[in-house]
């Protein structure tokens, strides 16, 4: 089939206005961080699952490769076409219906293109909670969250996207529709296809809808900000918080003082506790921790529990100073500090990002080791260390040394920085990609650090489900 | 390779005393409910992962099929050899080391042959909780729990076995060892092989070890027993309990009055509330619910929360009577009622068991429909309905009509009963196997009720990972 014939066929399936070939398609053809610019044959925007199936059948018949795309906010270049002009970008954003809300089952069934924040708000209107929450929530889609098994800030309590999903609807690389949307909490009838598709980054098929878990809204949510004397102390505080807040612990973020100092410098309107005002606190407390306590009872009860925890933490010595937000505004402001770190980093200049995980118990030794290696090998290096300590997930980022030219530093040192960080992660039994996935950006890291036996099984599964190799080639697994 | 040569080779790998060919091997060769009696070439009991790999390599070279086995307590005939005398039973019970306890990471890494109850006790000794709990816990193994994705009584809070696992060690059908035991809470580096092996019932490879989640022990645990006026009311109570106990809700079991009457009849030493004493309660309250509330604070607090919930439930009308256990002994006694139902059923005579799930919201309509169909089609049928309502999972069992010959009834009606129940389940979008798996017992049900598209993908995965077809053939997927 010629390209022209395929495009004509796609126009018949989804309607001519939804096959984009002209004009500025950069929103679809380049990745979120603008590292990779591709060129597609067309951007195709089906409006329902049957149309997705039709598009895939047509592409499979033509031997044309497909790059599925949601909000295109991924950080690992998993939804960008190559520059051949021969791949189809399959945008799922028009599949944005909420098919069913089942309050008694605590689930809703939503289409892949639904924006995460819209789903949070919808749950809220129903008096329920959809707990998935992450920086891109205003523009990312639930399909993308599922495709990458996104994490975020509430994983310590509610798990990753995988843990929030009870069922999927998927279009296979052959254009067949699998309806796995029963919404059951227990169903042991064969292999777990659901979890195989979740996190497969569109390489095994296309998620078109999902049944997701909802939760009762907490009666109250409180936020605390604590200065801790060491990373060991932060891990001890995590243990105390698990013990005394139980499942009430819904957030546990750590931030190094250098990361906080960038917020102070570039967002002077934000009041950051335990840094500027108490100028020497940085030495006494190299890290701060943000804790969130969700309570099914009342704000008063949440406050008592928090005070009890912090008393124990002071006695233990794992906290040297702490503040509990007195109002929702204060709580919002504290979270805003944490969420502003990436922007403050960007304001400061170029930097190298990592998204790594290590068992929480090994985080202190890992950080000590990695800090020492980087400082030794790269004089003047500045470490922006923050992240979801409750999940053992750090955004262990590296800022260009003060006064150095950013582009030159990245050109000369980015590969070395990555090598040093990932070798350290590997030595401590960690992962080079905790929540951002592999994409096309890290397939070499997968080859290097994933178990060869696991890789062999992954390739066998890819070949079994997508023997033509048309689904998002070069993502997760390197091109053969 | 001849059988003799293979046996000699196996003796060299695991030691002659661990290759069993003589004597009474029925503990290995028949299933738990003694429905199927097989005959193996040998029962092989390797002592470590390397020996498991050696055994599989030898069997693969000889083209001999392998039936992996843990405690052999499964209910779906998933670990029984056929009667050919040519299959190897690979018993994992000698792999019973606890490799590592990581209190700060809230995990332990344990070998497949560890008995579940031993792991619960070990966690307890560490001041932690391993929440997986089910009837066979005194003899089932964690490897079997993982292979079947076992459920149990705490799923409403902690999930199925799948949800408790952070990593696996697996020996592939080629005898390669995959070490996936990092114990990370976030790791998005390729396809989710862990969840593919969990629930695959030994048909894709052999789980030899796992890193499992641990939790803080609750400060207090309280149990309540409530009489409810209908199944709708039970579901309303579930919603209230989610809302007001939050993650404190760790158990929510429903029991029909006929199920309870069998306990009263056959276990007269047990005091069952809301049945015998108040003789008319059965009409007013056709079901009772057992609730468990785990509190991270104190017993006093747990009691206040429970009382608050029950007040609301009385006001709502979804509870007509309730008792909260005053002591651990009382709580134990209430649970003992629930746990005695299967034994009381056996005392009453032969019966037909089901392990089905439906979305909680649809349970009332499902039960009304299925009850009506069964009563219409099979005069005198007695329905023993109980189970994990918090997960939408009912053991919707059928007792032989009073006075009828059990064996004759099963011979004449078992297929019809199963047909009627599974058709009803299917009509309500449910699952014919919620927590017991498929085994060799229900492969025909899988063919009938699983999506053909899903089945095709499952077969492709099986062929990709086990092209020789030597791993537990005829389990999950019917023999080709």
TrEMBL record, chains A, B:
Keywords (A to Z) from UniProt: FAD, Flavoprotein
Where does the source fall among the domains of life? Answer: Bacteria
SUPFAM superfamilies in alphabetical order: FAD-binding/transporter-associated domain-like, FAD-linked oxidases, C-terminal domain
Q: Which InterPro entries match?
A: FAD-bd_oxidored_4_C (IPR004113), FAD-bd_PCMH (IPR016166), FAD-bd_PCMH-like_sf (IPR036318), FAD-bd_PCMH_sub1 (IPR016167), FAD-bd_PCMH_sub2 (IPR016169), FAD-linked_Oxase-like_C (IPR016164), FAD-oxidored/transferase_4 (IPR051264), Oxid_FAD_bind_N (IPR006094)
Q: Which Pfam families match?
A: FAD-oxidase_C (PF02913), FAD_binding_4 (PF01565)
Every copy of the FAD-binding PCMH-type domain together lies at 36-217
Indicate the segments annotated as coiled coil, or none if absent.
none
Return the Gene3D superfamilies for the record. Answer: 3.30.465.10, 3.30.70.2190, 3.30.70.2740, Uridine Diphospho-n-acetylenolpyruvylglucosamine Reductase, domain 2 (3.30.43.10), Vanillyl-alcohol Oxidase, Chain A, domain 4 (1.10.45.10)
The family classification in the record reads: Belongs to the FAD-binding oxidoreductase/transferase type 4 family.
| Name of the molecule in the record | FAD-binding oxidoreductase
